[in-house]
Every structure is written in structure tokens, then in C-alpha cells.
Design a protein that fits this description.
Elements lengths: L1 H19 L25 H10 L11 E11 L3 E12 L11 E10 L4 E11 L4 E16 L4 H4 L6 E19 L2 E16 L14 E14 L10 E11 L9 E15 L2 E14 L7 E2 L15 E2 L1 E14 L2 E13 L11 E13 L2 E10 L2 E8 L4
Antiparallel strand pairs: 1-2, 2-3, 3-4, 4-5, 5-6, 6-7, 7-8, 8-9, 9-10, 10-11, 11-14, 12-13, 14-15, 15-16, 16-17, 17-18
Length: 394
């Protein structure tokens, strides 16, 4: 009889654990014959530990120590095919004794697919001296069986121009920002990138217009940012305006000499309960003898989601997006967005008849506090793309 009672009690305790992934403690009142005994808490099995792990992943790190959580999962895209990705998101304080210094963040990622694609990298923002100093970094290495359609809208929109090549790309981007006024940051930046393009045996080499397929690009410049966001990884309010100017001179051993100007502006408006309207404008302009590998491109994981990154490329690109973000249930959210973009050889030659539409929907899961894992399904002109990534697109 005693064993039966213990079995029933243990079962009632395990059911909420499986449904909610949270620890439950309760005091059990025993019968008069059992009052001298105590019931030991059931030992958690592997499944319960996983549930507790993800159930507690988004709790704030009270002691401000290094807090990291892991997640992995499958995805699919037209360019990379079936893919497995593993993400690790961490938060930490650069000064644990100072509660006024906001937490820094870091993300480590790796992914590989059935198409032969693989990548690994680390990115994040370290914040020092009560957010007076910020260090943004993105280090990555990728190898991708890629496609190329040439340069310019007319060539890019022609499906018959599609040719295959393999792109190997190690890249390091570092920005140091110093607060000069409330919410205003300025500082130097550098971008080092080597691109190695290896066309397939039947590739149409004329699409590259005789350019070198292997290029070394070492850029230096400055960055200015005005940032009032409430947090960097999953903002609910505020604005962020960032302007970057980079130069790639020959004396830095660049394959080609050129320069670029990039502007991004985003805003976040709390619209209703658990609802946010997010807006973004982005543009990238290049000047001089810009190599094919460093031209402004459209698509990918962050802008114009759903377009094959690199299909549309030219010396200039502009795009704009509006996105509605809604918390649906507990840590689960949903988004829907719409936007448009275009590419052009120079501003004076912008043709709005070549405007490319973009829209899509997505799911969000709060992996850690203000850190979302996102699943986006984007649509463009005769294109569709699925994205699995960490943090919001903007």
C-alpha cells in the first residue's frame, strides 16, 4: 500500500515537470502511520534535466557571472539545403562589482549542410565603464558552394546567367565605440576579409568581367552611432542610427582600391500589449574599383530575408523593412514583415521600376533574457528562403 501511494505521489509530481519544465516543490503530509518517514525527491532523469535547462535558460543572471546556454536544430534553405546549426548564447559583465555596467553578450555558432556548406564564428558586444566603451566584433569562417549571376540588375534578374562556384571566406570585423555624448558613440573600425572564388568546370567566366577571383580586402575607417535602444539583442523601444565609412587603399595590400559608406537606421515602437513595430532602413554605397566580392549585395539573414544573398549585387544597394513583433505565449513570439529594396551602379542611375519586393513571417523563442532564436520564412521576387539564427534581424 505504501509503495502504491509513493508511486501515485511521484507521478503527480512528474506530470507538471514534463508540461512546464519548471521545478516544483511541495510538502507531503503522510498518514499517522507514515509521519516518521520522509519521501525523498525523485531523482531527475535525462529528459527532466533538458526540460529544466531550457525552462530556466531565460532567467536573468543575478550574480552577473558568465552565463551561457546551448541550442541546436535543423533548418533548410534553397541555397544551403538541409542544415544543422548549433548556437551558444552567453551574457556576462566586464565589471561584476559595478551593477551600472550593462551586461555584454556573445554568440558562438557553427553550421553545416548537405550541400557542402559549413561555417563557424563568434560575434558579440563587450561593454565597459558603464557602457561608455563598446567593442563590437564578428569573426567568422565559411565555405559555401555558391552561385553567381554577374553584376547589375539586368544580369542578376536573368536566370540563364546562373553559374556555380565555391566561395571560401574568412573575415574579421571589429568596431571600438566611445561615448562622447549621451547615447552618441564614435570610434575606429577595421574589416579584414579574404575571398577565394573557385568556379566549377562549366562556369561562365565571362560573368566576372575579367576580375580576379581571389581578393584580399583590408579596410580601415570610422563609425558613428546614436543608440537609445533599451537592449541590444532584442529591443522593445528606442532608435539606433549607425554610419560607417571604410577605405581599402592599395598601401594596405588590397587587391583593388575602393571605399564604402554604410548607413543603417532602425526604430522600435511599443504599439500594444506585447506588440512592437520595428522599422529599418539600410544602404551600402561603394566607390572606386570595387571588386566583385565586395560589392553591395541583397538578401541573407538580416536584410531582404528570402533573397539568395549575392544574387543581386552592384556598387550600391538600398532597402527598407517594417516588421510587427508579437509575444504570443510565454516565451514564444511571432513576426510578420514587408519591405522592398534595389541595387544600382550609382545614385544618379536609380531605377524604381527595378524595385524588388520582400515579405515574410517568422517564429521567435526567447532562448535567454532578451535573446531570441528566430525562424524566418522570407519571400522575394521568384525566391523563397528559410532562416534559422540567433537575435533579431535588426
Amino acid at each position: 500500500m505504501l509503495s502504491l501511494k509513493r508511486f501515485l505521489i511521484s507521478t503527480l509530481l512528474l506530470v507538471p515537470l514534463l508540461l512546464q519544465g519548471q521545478e516544483i516543490s511541495s510538502e507531503i503530509q503522510l498518514t499517522e502511520l507514515e509521519q516518521t518517514d520522509s519521501i525523498k525527491p525523485p531523482k531527475k532523469n535525462f529528459i527532466h534535466r533538458i526540460i529544466d535547462y531550457f525552462g530556466n535558460a531565460n532567467r536573468e543572471n543575478k550574480d552577473r557571472g558568465f552565463d551561457i546556454t546551448f541550442i541546436g536544430g535543423p533548418s533548410y534553405s534553397s541555397e544551403k539545403k538541409f542544415m544543422i546549426g548549433i548556437l551558444a548564447a552567453g551574457t556576462f559583465s566586464t565589471n561584476r562589482a559595478d551593477s551600472l555596467t550593462p551586461l555584454s553578450n556573445v554568440s558562438l555558432y557553427t553550421s553545416f549542410s548537405t550541400s557542402g556548406f559549413y561555417s563557424l564564428g563568434v560575434m558579440g558586444t563587450a561593454r565597459f565603464r558603464r557602457d561608455f566603451i563598446r567593442l563590437n566584433y564578428d569573426l567568422q569562417f565559411s565555405s559555401l558552394p555558391d552561385k553567381f549571376w554577374g553584376i547589375g540588375y539586368e544580369m542578376n534578374s536573368n536566370n540563364d546567367n546562373e553559374t556555380r562556384y565555391k566561395l571560401v571566406k574568412p573575415e574579421i570585423v571589429v568596431k571600438a565605440l566611445f561615448g562622447v555624448l549621451p547615447h552618441l558613440y564614435v570610434g575606429p573600425m577595421t574589416d579584414v576579409c579574404y575571398l577565394d572564388g573557385n568556379p566549377s568546370s562549366n562556369a561562365d567566366l565571362s560573368l566576372w568581367n575579367g576580375e580576379k577571383l581571389k581578393t584580399f580586402n583590408f579596410g580601415v575607417g570610422a563609425n558613428i552611432s546614436y543608440d537609445t535602444r533599451d537592449n541590444l539583442t532584442g529591443p522593445h523601444s528606442g532608435v539606433n542610427i549607425e554610419l560607417s565609412q571604410k577605405f581599402y587603399p592599395k598601401w594596405l595590400r588590397n587587391t583593388y582600391s575602393f571605399a564604402s559608406t554604410e548607413l543603417s537606421a532602425s526604430g522600435y515602437i511599443p504599439a500594444w500589449r506585447s506588440g512592437i513595430i520595428a522599422l529599418q532602413y539600410h544602404s551600402l554605397l561603394t566607390y572606386g574599383d570595387t571588386p566583385w566580392s565586395m560589392l553591395a549585395t541583397m538578401g541573407g539573414s538580416y536584410t531582404m530575408r528570402g533573397y539568395y544573398k549575392g544574387r543581386y549585387r552592384d556598387k550600391g544597394e538600398m532597402d527598407a523593412t517594417i516588421e510587427i513583433r508579437q509575444r504570443v505565449w510565454h516565451r514564444i513570439g511571432a513576426v510578420a514583415w514587408g519591405g522592398a529594396g534595389l541595387i544600382f551602379p550609382r545614385i544618379s542611375q536609380i531605377n524604381f521600376h527595378q524595385l524588388l519586393p520582400n515579405y515574410g513571417v517568422g517564429l521567435r523563442w526567447e532562448f535567454k533574457k532578451n535573446v531570441n532564436v528566430r525562424f524566418d520564412l522570407g519571400f522575394g521576387k521568384n525566391q523563397t528562403g528559410f532562416i534559422f539564427n540567433i537575435n533579431e534581424a535588426f
